[in-house]
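Hi X.,

You mentioned you wanted examples for the new student's onboarding notes, showing what a folding record looks like when two proteins sit in one file. Here is a clean example. The first protein comes first, with its sequence line followed by its structure tokens.
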Amino acid sequence: MPHTVSGSNAEGGPGVAEERREEGARRDHPAGLGVVQVMHDPRDPALQQWLRSLKPRVELTARYALRAKFPAIRADRDFGARIAELLYQLHPDDEELAAILRDAQLVSQAFEPPDEQTLRRRQAVSRITPRARHAKPRG
């Protein structure tokens, strides 16, 4: 079973994975704005406040995901320094760091617009009722 990011922020709200799903839903909606369209400055105080509201492991995962996706963040010294602080605070072993990096890769995929095939598959799945998903085929 793949390791996924979960958890909650300091206020007890959804973690990165839940927020990623919500963002994906907004991005897929015709009137919604995707993260890619609004992400322009890694020093944005609102972004930094949101990141710091997350639990340390989830924050580290989110920062790695953002750094992988946006070149401006890779060059930001403060952003990199915060990653170093989180690594020092968490002291992840090799296995845990690998899991964090895998999770970051999954999160960063949420910043990619879905291709046409993925959209069709999502639409087909959404039309299936929960009962029909688990029903045995007749025949």
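Then the second protein repeats the pattern, sequence line and then tokens:
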Amino acid sequence: MLLKPMISLSLAAMAGLFLTLSAEAKPKFTVDNETWEDVRIEIYNGDDPLCKEDLKTKTVADDESGSFTCKGSGTGKCKVKIWVINPFGKDDSICRSKRNTCSGRAIKMKDGATLKITEEDVRGSNGERKVKYNCEIG
């Protein structure tokens, strides 16, 4: 009589552990680039505190999206640096975290998250046209 509840409890514990490990093993996220420029994505493992070991670098073309993974290494997250590819000069780093994520140069993407990148025209203090990039994680 006691055996049946123990087996059920054991199976439930094993299923919970499996789901936890599979969710954190390879977090998958999406980048939705709604700008006029291509963006470069540098992906780092979740346990890389300084973003020193670049896992992979990918490009998402303008008005396209892409899905990516990393080794969550128990964190369930990837660390990601985003750059707007500027054909006329230096690439611009965008979507940086104010928190201490790779010295403020990256963001953390959870499993299943989508990063939406948009742009808008703004005027500088001297009336010069500039582009402002907005990053929204959902």
